[in-house]
Amino acid sequence: SMKLKLPAPPPPSSLSATGGNASVSLSWSPASPTPAGYNLYRSTDGGATWAKANAALITATTYVDTGLVNTQSYAYYITSVDSQTFEGAPSTAATATPLNPNPPLAPTGLHAADTGTGTAAAVSWSANSEPDLNGYVLVWGTSSGVYTGTLSLPAGSTTALVGGLTNGVTYYFAVAARNTSGLQSPNSSEAVCAMTGLRLAIRPPALINDLKVTKSGQDLVLTWTKPATDVGGSPTAVTSFLIYRVVGAYDWNLDKVSTAPPNAMIPISLSPDLSQSVYTYTDTGAMALSNPLTYLVVALDQGLRSPASHAPPSPIMDLKVTRGVTGNTLLSFTPVTTDVAGQALPGLTGYKVYGFYPMAASSDHVSPPSPSLVATLPPTLPPCEGTAVFCDASSSPPLFYTVVAVDNRGNTSLY
To answer: Is-above-0.70 flag for pTM?
Structure first.
């Protein structure tokens, strides 16, 4: 036998739907007579198919449907259910589209560096964590805050290669995040990139330029920030630090300074927390040392030392080696006048000429052993034969040469 209950419970009226952030808020007028509760049905395909949205019977006349996808359109209808679980006909449908009213956070960790061509920059940043992230907008220009270039990138991007730049020009980059609701974050902090066209074979950490020394009783407390980039502006991984303490006057050359007491060279290990950026060191009892008292802190990365006091000289990029009419090996290059950042170079003290003798070969590659110092040249380069600035009269000259500029802090140019 079959039991029928007639009439079926009538549907509620005036169903309305309002989109929120990954949610839709629904309300309706109660059916009469008042049923035991309601069931809510949802469609994501314009009403072709429906699925029940509520797990338990709804007894109120409002409901918030959560866990939805922003910018996806949702349709709803509601039914009345009586005390014996009989379900009535559907109400009139209502639709809504969830939207996120909040823009994403501004991206962090932006870096930009010349690829070595002078016409392209490699840009990177840290990924945003918003679940409704839709992509990034990278902008750049030749003045801070004024951007003439734009590149849209998908949500999974954290790097970009920007071409068409001009050698010798400084560019300012910023990146913003965009969500699926069409809202865009503020721009990130700018990354500054000087296009130099320098291909750097070695890239030590950048200069530590914020060292502070404060007094605490009879102690002196040093504070500095770990460099996040190398001298070329690319991300770097500092492995440790060296603190130089010098009592009395000296020539600021870390390669020559004495570390005998009361001077000191103090190694500082990297924190296990790799996100730590600010470091401190307490020099106990340092107030008792005589004046002048000087501190310098350098960062190390795989043995490469960051510049001391100011940026290192620019690398020599046009070294030429020829055979002279007398049989000497002739070296010529353009004198160095700027540092690696393109600024006027203070305190050039000379040049070092290194030679690589017979190349060491293995089964899969050829590489030079450690170079030998061939000569030291003065800052003003005297010609030795024609336009050459150094004449190697050795009967067994090196097979390969490299020349580095040296400043009055012991910083050498990169090669």
So the answer is: no
Residue 87 is given by DSSP the state B
pLDDT tens per residue, range 79-91: 999 988 899 999 9
Q: Which two tokens stand for residue 158?
A: 């954290």
Q: How far is CA 33 from CA 9, 30, 43, 82, 121, in A?
A: 8, 8, 27, 10, 71
Counting DSSP H helices and E strands in the chain, the numbers are 0, 29
Predicted pLDDT at 201: 57
**259, 267 Cβ separation under 8 angstroms:** no
**How much of the chain exceeds pLDDT 90, in percent?**
53
Range 46-54, long-range pairs (CB < 8 A, 24+ positions): 46/73, 46/75, 47/75, 47/93, 50/77
Give residue 408's pLDDT band: very low, low, confident or very high (50, 70, 90).
Answer: confident
CA distances from 68 to 21, 42, 63, 240 (A): 8, 11, 14, 48
Buried b (16+ CB within 10 A) or exposed e, 317-354: eeeebeeeeeebbbbbbeebeebbbeeebebbbebbbb
Residue 147: other Cβ atoms inside 10 A: 19
Instruction: Write the Ramachandran bin of 22: left for phi over 0, alpha for psi from -120 to 50, otherwise beta.
Output: left
